[in-house]
């Protein structure tokens, strides 16, 4: 019998699918995957809820399927958030150390992080994450854990991730109406990096590119810390739409063709390979070559990776990621994605599959589950003990801003 206290749940709310993963924390502190639930996503566009009821129903189906497989009832989850509204900025905070003998305490660390997060934000934006990069004590930099060290001046550099308040509200409301409390909302590329990177890649520097259905999400990690995040408003759905238009076939059939025959590099295909393409209006299927399909898909892959490459270069960290690029997400499975990415980035590229867990490893060891598994790992390793978000319509705004209230009292 699985104890409730040992359960951890992640819900990846994507544009094309809702993925619920249930894990159990074993006696050694490791996570075993015990349940997986998948449901087609209805009601989202590019990571943003546009139809609440459809989204709620999709989440319910996914959660129920995972609960049946695991044989447990879930009551709270870590939930992923994505979309074009996500923005990341770097900030710095500075304080004078006030502890006895100038020894840095946890209170000092909290104060300097609060100082770093005190940036001016529009009323319609919410702080989702404040991620420390490094601490500086009396001009001594690259300190990861300052607790117990002595100094007069303490500084911290952080990466702040913000999102639209309304989008965060709607994600929380959807999960709550599906019967779950929200333990925390986690940036999806942050979750993907948690599940796909090995320690050497984190330390040397790497970029994680998560190609989801509606968006392509980027995270750059250097010396174990997030340095840059960005969202490109193109993803796997764009490949599907291109196929539907180019081959004049319904979107549902275009998705099947993409999954079964998709290749984004014409050079990898042999001449003469063909496939049957269902048409609209009850006409007979047409036969086309896979070369034609690849010619439709290749420009879109080049566009997506080209935009990511430009974002990496504009970030200023292009020369600081010797480990290269890790591509993950469902669309990364298409044939030729790694090859074309290497051509465009001029860096080593590998496929990112989730690691660092036990249990149903054969079921979820695929790039399409990287975010879901990462939600469990990130929530367990970095989750703080804070009240779950249980929203009711009249108090939704206040609940979304719980984390902000913890530090606003120091300034107002």
A few lines on this structure:
It is built from 13 helices and 19 strands.
What share of the residues does DSSP label as strand, in percent?
25-35%
- Note the gap between the termini: 48 Å
Which sequence of strands runs across the widest sheet?
Answer: 11-6-1-2-3-19
CATH topology type of the domain at 199-352:
Nucleotidyltransferase, domain 5
If you compute it from the alpha carbons, what radius of gyration comes out, rounded to the nearest whole angstrom?
Answer: 22 Å
Helix/strand-derived category reads: alpha/beta
Q: How much helix is in the residues?
A: 25-40%
Structure description:
This protein is α/β, with parallel strands linked by helices. Among the domains are: 93 residues, Dna Ligase, domain 1 (2-Layer Sandwich), CATH 3.30.1490.110; 154 residues, 2-Layer Sandwich (Nucleotidyltransferase, domain 5). The protein is built from 13 helices and 19 strands. The strands form five sheets. The chain has a six-stranded mixed sheet, sandwiched between helices. A five-stranded mixed sheet has the order 14-13-12-17-18, with helices on both faces. Strand 1 and strand 2 form a beta hairpin. The protein is globular and about 85 Å long. The C terminus is likely disordered.
């Amino acid at each position: 019998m699985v104890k409730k206290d040992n359960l951890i749940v992640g819900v990846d709310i994507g544009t094309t699918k809702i993925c619920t993963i249930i894990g159990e924390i074993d006696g050694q502190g490791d996570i075993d995957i015990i349940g997986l639930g998948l449901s087609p996503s209805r009601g989202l566009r590019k990571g943003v809820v546009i139809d609440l009821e459809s989204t709620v129903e999709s989440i319910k189906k996914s959660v129920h399927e995972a609960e049946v497989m695991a044989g447990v009832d879930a009551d709270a989850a870590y939930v992923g958030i994505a979309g074009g509204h996500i923005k990341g900025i770097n900030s710095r905070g500075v304080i004078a150390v006030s502890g006895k003998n100038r020894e840095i305490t946890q209170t000092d660390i909290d104060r300097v992080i609060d100082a770093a997060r005190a940036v001016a934000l529009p009323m319609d934006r919410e702080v989702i994450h404040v991620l420390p990069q490094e601490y500086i004590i009396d001009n001594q930099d690259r300190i990861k854990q300052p607790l117990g060290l002595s100094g007069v001046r303490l500084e911290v550099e952080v990466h702040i991730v913000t999102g639209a308040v309304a989008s965060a509200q709607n994600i929380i409301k959807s999960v709550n109406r599906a019967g779950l409390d929200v333990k925390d909302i986690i940036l999806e590329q942050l979750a993907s990096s948690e599940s796909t990177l090995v320690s050497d890649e984190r330390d040397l520097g790497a970029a994680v590119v998560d190609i989801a259905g509606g968006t392509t999400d980027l995270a750059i990690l250097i010396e174990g810390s997030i340095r840059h995040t960005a969202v490109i408003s193109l993803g796997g759905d764009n490949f599907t739409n291109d196929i539907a238009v180019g081959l004049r076939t319904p979107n549902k059939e275009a998705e099947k063709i993409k999954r079964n025959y998709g290749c984004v590099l014409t050079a990898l295909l042999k001449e003469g390979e063909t496939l049957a393409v269902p048409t609209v209006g009850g006409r007979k299927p047409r036969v086309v070559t896979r070369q034609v399909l690849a010619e439709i898909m290749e420009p879109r892959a080049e566009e997506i990776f080209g935009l990511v490459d430009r974002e990496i270069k504009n970030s200023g960290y292009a020369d600081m990621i010797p480990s290269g690029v890790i591509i993950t997400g469902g669309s990364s499975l298409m044939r030729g994605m790694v090859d074309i990415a290497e051509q465009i980035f001029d860096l080593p590229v590998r496929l990112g599959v989730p690691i660092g867990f036990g249990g149903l490893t054969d079921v979820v060891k695929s790039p399409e589950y990287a975010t879901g598994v990462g939600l469990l790992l990130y929530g367990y390793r970095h989750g703080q003990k804070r009240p779950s978000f249980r929203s009711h319509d009249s108090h939704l705004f206040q609940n979304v801003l719980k984390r902000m209230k913890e530090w606003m009292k120091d300034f107002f």
